[in-house]
């Protein structure tokens, strides 16, 4: 099946199964929208695979057993995706292409499936820390997989106008991007790389350092 047909099938799936996401995706640039559609389509079918079997079960025990079976199938499908021999489904094929293109770490979708496993176990969350751990798995993991930079600016004119720049962070971390060494932890260290590394690698080091500083600041401001 062609990539274009798989993406169209994913789009139809999201139009019916996740109307809010489908509407929001329309503002994304075409290439990022394709990535988002592939990612969310797989997440949607995975979520439905676990939830729908429980809804159809005659009792809770049967529902949990069916959910465990559904999870086993999802783990197998994820293994096939990362082995580049996906299950014969448009969402699996589209997600497999995305995984190969951006070198998406397997730990992220595994985190999502772990959250589904917690659902199947009917876990309860007695503290905010426990609830946050659950939220990281069922929501945060998806957010990290579909991380984007968004910049906005107000444009002058007769009517208020806003411009947006949206950049897919994951797409910039693909298999074709050379890895940076992580040598620079400060501006002083970065300056010492001049003449020792190609300029394009120094630019990569600059981005890595700034990103690391921003993440650290965000963790401190939000108390992790």
Q: State the separation between the terminal residues, measured CA to CA.
A: 43 Å
3D shape? globular
Query: Tell me about the biggest sheet?
Result: 2 strands, antiparallel
Q: pLDDT below 50 for ≥5 consecutive residues: which ranges?
A: 171-185
How many DSSP-defined strands? Answer: 2
Mean pLDDT reading: 77
Strand content: 5-15%
The strands making up the biggest β-sheet line up spatially as: 1-2
Structural class: mainly alpha
Order of helices and strands: HHHHHHHEEHH
Tally of helical runs: 9
Radius of gyration: 21 Å
Helix content: 55-70%
How would you describe what is shown here?
The chain has nine helices and two strands. With 224 residues, it is mainly α. A hairpin with a 5-residue loop joins strand 1 and strand 2. The protein is globular, with a radius of gyration of 21 Å. It starts with a helix and ends with a helix. 22% of the residues are buried.
Short description:
The chain is built from 9 helices and 2 strands; from the N terminus they run αααααααββαα.
Topology at a glance:
Layout: H1 3-17, H2 19-25, H3 30-56, H4 60-82, H5 90-102, H6 107-120, H7 128-145, E1 148-155, E2 161-168, H8 187-191, H9 199-221
Antiparallel strand pairs: 1-2
Which key features would you list for this structure?
224 residues; mainly alpha; two-stranded antiparallel sheet; 2 strands
